[in-house]
Amino acid sequence: MKKAFVTKEMVEEIVKKYPTPFHIYDERGIRENVKALQKAFSWNPGFKEYFAVKATPNPTILRILHEEGCGTDCSSLAELVMSERTGIQGYDVMFSSNETPAEEYVKCAEIGGIINLDDITHIDFVVNALEGKLTGEEAGRKLPRRMSCRFNPGGLFTLGESSESVQVMDNPGEAKYGMTEEQIIEAYKRLKELGVEELGLHSFLASNTVTNDYYPALARILFQLAVKIQKEAGVKLSFINLSGGVGISYVPDKPSNDIQAIGDGVHKVYDEVLVPAGMGDVAIYTELGRFMLAPYGHLVTKAVHEKHIYKEYIGVDACAANLMRPAMYGSYHHITVLGKEDAPKDHVYDVVGSLCENNDKFAIDRELPEIEIGDYLAIHDTGAHGFAMGYNYNGRLWSSELLLRMDGTVTLIRRAETLEDYFATLEGFWDIEV
Ligand SMILES: *Cc1c(COP(=O)(O)O)cnc(C)c1O
């Protein structure tokens, strides 16, 4: 069962100040979940979660996570700057980017972040970027003390032992990210020669996994590679970054991941592979996005139209511009009709937004209680890759973001976009007044 963290009464109060649609986040849920993650990895003294900023790029959210001991995982200039302005710098910043412009490496180095190289050719690129050769400045910066390399094992990534139980998780052989084993060993040798003292290993092999076996399986691959790197490159790694990919269950009847079991699973492999190789002090890092935030966000929207043609439609005031996942991936997002939590689900609806696109459907053939115009709907699990993936198609504006505080009050943490914002980048054409 999925239960909304807001009620009809709460929303009726909120909309007096902040009209629908809006994204709202649950501070208590976020903090409790970080604590559970940290407890699951407390056996590892250097453990750190670097929150994937792209999932929920809001400084208030970053600050809450930072207060709980998390860093940020950035992949663009805007994310680096947001992290810096939130007061998150130095080794609290991981820069796991790809196809990265020179200026962004420079920015990362300036704030003392950890550059995670996506390719062996990027060693020279970063050296040149920091020296200023790529940006035309006289800089002469040195490579940072601490860096990381991203690994791609190729082939298919599977879980399970016997041929019947093998589950294909993803296809790294088709993924643009990371280096081959041969390249990564070479990369560590070169980085060591160039004076980088603390090196890490990173890999991201599958997204939104709903199994307790993903991290342990990934850890085994990376830990075995770490032992090989020590032998062949003479580099003892300082940290291993399991990256993102631990998912959540979006559907109500499928169990979610058990983070304690995941932490225990990684611990077991650590003791089996790293400890005997004399690497019992390697820190484990994660770069989770979805797992940290998705369940602690709702998109709250109001039913504004109903339509009875070949199917039953409910039109709401949010659209795919506020939450792209259903349109883009056909993703299921659970919906609670607020105030009707216990009513029988005896109607079948398509719940649709206003884009001139027929894939703008938050739910298709969904069994729900009878929806009346004016009802508020909480769309679940929108805290990660929700607001963040928004766009302006059809001239739809970005919604506000709200935070439900620990004490039950609600704070605006991003105002809704206005028409002035929307027109602000149009040059030399008109001065708009609205
Ligand atoms: C997207 C991303 C993450 C976060 O992924 P989730 O599936 O949200 O956990 C972490 N690291 C990198 C490099 C990413 O691109």
Describe this structure in words.
Strands 1, 12, 13, 14, 15, 16, 17, 18 and 19 form a 9-stranded mixed β-sheet that branches. The protein is of the alpha/beta class and 434 residues long. The model has no long low-confidence stretch (mean pLDDT 96). It is globular, with a radius of gyration of 23 Å. It is 28% helix and 21% strand. Bound molecules: pyridoxal-5'-phosphate (PLP). Pyridoxal-5'-phosphate binds next to α10.
Structural features:
8-stranded parallel barrel; alpha/beta; binds pyridoxal-5'-phosphate; 434 residues; 9-stranded mixed β-sheet; single chain
Provide a quick synopsis of the model.
The chain has about 425 residues and is of the alpha/beta class. It has helices at about 10-15, 25-40, 60-65, 75-85, 100-110, 120-130, 180-195, 215-235, 260-275, 290-295, 325-330, 420-425; strands at about 20-25, 50, 70-75, 95, 115, 145-150, 155-160, 165-170, 200, 240, 285, 295-310, 310-315, 335, 345-350, 360-370, 375-380, 400-405, 410-415.
